[in-house]
Amino acid sequence: MFQLSKNGERKLLQSLYATLKSQASLAAVAYDEGNYDEVKRIGHSLRGNSGAAYFHLTRVGEIGRQLHNIAELDSSTFSILLSELRQIVELLQEKIESN
Predict the structure, then answer these.
(1) Along the 99 residues of the chain, how does pLDDT read in single tens digits?
(2) Considering just the CA atoms, what is the radius of gyration of the chain in Å?
(3) Spatial CB neighbours of 64, under 8 Å, sequence gap ≥ 6
(4) What pTM was estimated for this model as a whole?
(5) What gap in Å lies between CA 62 and CA 7, rounded to an integer?
(6) Domain that holds residue 40
(7) Looking at the domain assignment, is residue 1 inside a domain?
(8) In total, how many domains does the chain have?
(9) Assigned domain for 43 exists
């Protein structure tokens, strides 16, 4: 597997944090507004996020896959997925702050 420099990893981590934080917020708004096409688009983006894959955050891809299949989600499941995504964002923030 390709290995980034420490500086490259730091930049990728910061970019991943910003992206996931934004996508979590956008997904929440889209779901609340009933814009399921947007939730599906966000899920597709999460599913293929190369930054998450680089850091072995496979759960991001799994969350993305489930969001992409929005028709199968009830509000409780959506809330759980969104909570998990936000927890990952918090962990990334802690990692950034510790470096």
Answers:
(1) 578 999 999 999 999 999 999 999 999 999 999 999 999 999 999 999 999 999 999 999 999 999 999 888 899 999 999 999 999 999 999 999 997
(2) 14
(3) 42, 43, 44, 45, 46, 47, 48, 49
(4) 0.92
(5) 28
(6) 6-98
(7) no
(8) 1
(9) yes
